Amino acid sequence: MTQTLDTLQEFIAAIDAAGELVRITRPVSVHLEMCEIADRTMKLPGGGPALLFEKPILRDGSVSQFPVAINLFGSMSRMALALGVKQLDEHGDRITKLMDLKVPEGFLGKLQLLPRLLEISKFPPRMASGTPSCQEIVWKGDEIDLDKIPVLTTWPEDGGPFLTMTAVVSKDPKRGIRNVGMYRVQQMGKKHVAMHWQRHKTGAEHWRQMAEKGEKMPVCIIIGSDPASMYSASAPLPPNVDEFIFAGFLRKAPVKLTKAVTCDLEVPADAEIVIEGYIDPAEELVVEGPFGDHTGYYSEADLYPRVHVTAVTMRKNAVYSATIVGRPPMEDFYLGHATERIFLPLLKLTTPEIVDYHMPAEGVFHNLVLVSIKKQYPGHAYKTMNALWGAGLMSLAKVIVVVDEWVNVRNPQEAWWVALNNIDPERDTRFTMGPVDVLDHASRAFTYGSKMGIDGTKKWPEEGFTRNWPTVIEMDAATKAKVDAYWASLGIEKK
C-alpha cells in the first residue's frame, strides 16, 4: 500500500526516509545563491536530490524562520511518491477504467461496477472542523510583512523576488466554480504582489469577468500543501473541473479545506503558508518581470494586476516551498512528465490512434511533441497533428513529430533516429498558423505564429511512395537468447 501524504512536511519526511533529501545546514542567501545551488542539483543525473535549506538568509541579512524546500518533485521516483503510486502510468490506467463506465448487463455485472462508482464519490474535498493548522499563526494589518518570507530572487536580471511553487485559488464569478492554478507571483513590497497569469489561463478569465463587473476579486496564494494538490495546480484541467477534486482522485482521499480568514475562498486546511488578498479592477496594472523562465530565456516585463495582501496565515514551524526554472532539465520537467502520463488516456479518447506521446525536456513542453500512432490510412499522421493542435493547450505545440506505433517516443534519440530516416523534408513537412505560447520569443507576433508537423511514419504507396521501404535492422530472437544466457559472464557490463 502506498502512503497518502496529507501535508508538505509529510512529503518531505517521506523523501528523507527514501534517502533522497539533502539538508543544507550552512546559511545560504535567497538572493541568487540558493538558485545556483538548486540549478546545479537539478542538472545531476536523474534530477538530483531534494534540498531543504535550513538557514535561508533574507535580503536584510537575517536568518529566516522558514526553511526552504526545493526540487521536491525533481525525479521520477519523487514524482511517483508525491502522487501515491509506483509508476505514474497507474493513474492513467485508473482514468481509462473510469471512462469505461457503460452499464454492464446482468446483476453480477452491475455489482462489479459499484466499486468504481463508489471511488468517484470519494473525490470531492471536505471542510475541516475546528481551527485548521494553516491558521495557527495569522498576520493582519501592520503584522503583514512578506520580507520575512524567504522569497527567492532566482536570476540576475529578474525584476525582483518571485513566489514560484504556488497554488492560486480564485472563483468563477458567474458559476462559482473554483480554479487553482500554478502562477508565478512577484513580490512588490511588504504587502503587495503582482499576479502573472497569462491570457489563456482560467484565473485570468475570472479576473476579466470581475473587472467587467467592477468588483474586487479575492485570491489566495497557497505555498505548500499536500503534494497531490500542489501538482494539480499545474495540471491542464478543463475550466469546469475543480483541481481539489482532481487532487482527491490522485490521493484516493478527499482534500481537507477551510475558509480563508479574509476572503470568501477555501484553501487546504493543512497548507504551510496562505497569502490572502484582492485585486481592485479600478487600479492600473503594474509592471511584472523580467523573469528567468522555463524556456531558458528571460521573459519580458509586462503589465499585470496587483494584489493587496489582507492576511498571511501559516502553520507553526511552516516550511516554504519553492522551485526554480531556467535552462532544462529542471524540476518542472518532472511535473510536466506526470501530466503527460496521467492525461494520455484523455488524449486517446478524442484521438484513439495515438499509442504514446512524449514532450522532451529540451522542448520545454510546448516546443516539441513526439507522437507514435497506429497508422491505418494514408495521411493519418497529418490527421493526428491537426487533432492535437485542436486539443486544449496542445494547440501551443510548436513542432509535432509523428512516428509509427513500434517507436519508443519516450526515448527521443530513437524517435529522432526513425523520423530523420523516414522523411523527405519537402514532402513530409507541413506548416500551419495558430496560437503560440506567451513565452515564445521567436514567434512573428505575440502569442501568434507558425507550427510545424513532421510525418516520420512509414510511407504508403497512396502517399506517393513507390520504392521499396527497407526493413529495420534487428538481431533474430534465437541469437539474442543465446547471448543473453552468458552475457553477464563476459564482464563487459560492470555492476
TrEMBL record:
Family: Belongs to the UbiD family.
Molecular function GO terms recorded: 4-hydroxy-3-polyprenylbenzoate decarboxylase activity
GO annotation (BP), single: ubiquinone biosynthetic process
One Pfam family here: UbiD
Domain 3-octaprenyl-4-hydroxybenzoate carboxy-lyase-like C-terminal: 334-455
Organism: Pseudogemmatithrix spongiicola
Domain 3-octaprenyl-4-hydroxybenzoate carboxy-lyase-like N-terminal: 12-94
GO cellular component, one term: cytosol
InterPro entries for this protein: HBDC, UbiD, UbiD-like_C, UbiD-like_N, UbiD_Rift_dom
Domain 3-octaprenyl-4-hydroxybenzoate carboxy-lyase-like Rift-related residues, every copy: 129-328
Entry protein name: Menaquinone biosynthesis decarboxylase
